[in-house]
Amino acid sequence: MRNMIVCVAASLVVLAGPIASLDTARGAEPGRSGRILAGAWVPEDTHQIDFANLPKIASRHVVVSDVRAAGGVNQHNYLVHHDGKFWVMWSDGPGVEDRVGQRVKFATSPDGLRWSDPKYLTPEPPGSGPKSEHYGTRTPEGLRWIARGFWQRDGELLALASLDEAAGFFGPSLELHAFRLAADGTWHDLGPIVDNAINNFPPKKLPTGQWMMSRRPHDYKRVGVHFLVGGVERLDRWESFPVLGSSSELSAEEPLWWTLPDGKLVALFRDNARSGFLYRSFSEDDGRTWTKPQRTNFPDATSKIFGLRLDDGRYVLISNANPRKRDPLVLSVSDDGVVFRAMGYLVGGRRVDYPHAIQQGDFLLVAFSGGKQSVEVLKIPLTEIDELSGRGVE
């Protein structure tokens, strides 16, 4: 399979016209102020929120995998529900984090609480297994796999994983692979579907019917982040659209996006320049062009975030909102996907990060990492989110 990607030079969208009025229309301050965390309970300086005493969200908790005793790594957690059961995948390797020899593991569950023993999803990285002299080190002389999520496409379950040199983030050979689940439960490498790319979350459908996912090239710290659109005719056919300003206005990392009720798109970005806040950008043309990322008032620990739209139309954002450390993991609720008016405490008292979540029926499953060395899952009744939304947030 030959990889096909077209890089498109997108022009910067001017912050004017219909998209400039989105904040006003959805209850935030006028003029695209970036005030996306709102309510009478929110202090002017959102870094002063008492994160440890946020309303508690009840859940059932289970540990899927724990490699603390072995000194290994468990992180980059992704969930899916497919063929009547839950699946979780993650990066598993010899030491924290992303070292030579790292692979991807997975486990399954009938109910999100009872999980199978972990199995390997990817093979050993070429020439970088336990017998390699570079195994467990950070060097360009060895390779590593990084878990990148499940993709349900045309009735099939695919698993995505990136492969590159293990020296830094990321190596020049960076490529994103797809693995297909076979009827016998084994995974088969279909080869790279995008060269020079690592996504953050698996593709989601746009209103147009095309797929979209984020892209960081190996030199993204210089060129910024992109979005990939395509994946319909072929697994490996994509167009790449840059988010202009994502390497100058901030140091953009790990993008998250969703579709708003009116069909427009919004993206949120972690800022590795350590501003302590999330940044936000909009697109009116299905991800081809984006407004210049703007700092919001939503606090962040410079950590990975995840969000999704629930079946009832509400949006939830799961993040490390405490800017001082990755503790606790919190869940925030928005009615419109733009302004969040409730925030609750999921789990904490220790380092907890790398969230991913899915809704299945009346429950929300949240996978996260404990100190980058365990894969853990919370099973949350949606009634808890209903209660959070109504807890005196105005």
Secondary structure elements and pairings:
Elements: E1 4-7, H1 22-25, E2 60-66, E3 73-82, E4 85-93, E5 103-109, E6 119-120, E7 143-153, E8 156-165, E9 175-181, E10 187-195, E11 204-205, E12 211-215, H2 220-223, E13 226-230, E14 237-242, E15 252-259, E16 265-271, E17 277-283, E18 294-299, E19 306-309, E20 315-319, E21 329-334, E22 340-347, E23 352-360, E24 363-370, E25 374-381, H3 382-389
Parallel strand pairs: 1-14
Antiparallel strand pairs: 2-25, 3-4, 4-5, 5-6, 7-8, 8-9, 9-10, 11-12, 12-13, 13-14, 15-16, 16-17, 17-18, 19-20, 20-21, 21-22, 23-24, 24-25
Task: Write up this protein.
- The structure is a single chain.
- The protein is mainly beta and 394 residues long.
- The chain has a single domain, classed as Neuraminidase (6 Propeller), CATH 2.120.10.
- 4% of the residues lie in helices and 43% in strands.
- The protein is built from three helices and 25 strands.
- The strands form six sheets. Strands 1-14-13-12-11 form a five-stranded mixed β-sheet, with no helix packed on it.
- Strand 7 and strand 8 form a beta hairpin.
- The longest helix has 8 residues.
- The chain is globular, with a radius of gyration of 20 Å.
- The chain starts with a strand and ends in a 5-residue tail after the last helix.
- The relative contact order is 0.18.
The CATH architecture category equals 6 Propeller
Give me the oligomer status. Answer: single chain
Mean of the pLDDT scores? 92
Low-confidence parts lasting 5 or more residues at pLDDT below 50?
A: 10-31
- Given this structure, which CATH class is correct? Mainly Beta
Number of folding domains?
1
Order of strands in the sheet with most strands: 1-14-13-12-11
Number of helices: 3
Tell me, briefly, the overall form.
Answer: globular
Order of helices and strands: EHEEEEEEEEEEEHEEEEEEEEEEEEEH
- CATH topology name, in short, is Neuraminidase
